Amino acid sequence: MAFSCILKTVFSKNCHKIRQLAGLWAGLLVQWIYLFKGLKGFSLVTTRKKIASKNQKPIIIYGDGACSGNPGPGGWACIIATSEGMVYERAGSRPESTNNKMELTAIGKALREIEGLAGDVVIYTDSKYVIEGITKWVHGWRANGWKKSDGKEVSNVEYWKRLVELVEARNDKITWEHVKGHAGNSGNERCDELATAYCKGRKLSLYEGPIEDYKIKL
Questions:
Q1: 159: domain range?
Q2: In angstroms, rounded to a whole number, what is the distance separating the alpha carbons of residues 138 and 159?
Q3: For residues 176-201, average pLDDT
Q4: Which residues belong to the active site?
């Protein structure tokens, strides 16, 4: 009994110092772990991104571009359906552009929008130019200093560089799916409607909310 009382007395007198030492050692241990992981190429992405679960649904993207005149006033639009069940429509315009630039812009804007979200991505576009370019041609272009086989600079090179940067920045799988334009695909049709309207100076209302309230079937 006396011994337990002595222990309590000693512990109570030194409790504050013990907590200080424990906190100091814990802090040093955390710093050491971060340093060790950093040396092995570890990057702590949880401060910026949510970690994707194994059964998480992919992020769905639809994108389309339009141009009145080609070159001429351009418009782009994209639809983003997140893994959490939210839908975001985005659209914009350029006073002078081309159809291919707007197609690239639509996908680039969507990828920029989801930079803070982890998870696999499925991208739907009716542009074979975008799909063939990002999955095949871009590797040769970049290896050749962004020159084509004839030695001329790649068209829309700045757009391609931005798209490559966004694609390579993702740690998750990206699947590219081609859809036929004006063939009844609801996501593609909606993007076409928005892009066409914006290139003509008409700003339609953009949806942002739960997927269950979205009138377009994705």
A1: 59-213
A2: 12
A3: 96
A4: 64-65, 103, 126, 182, 192
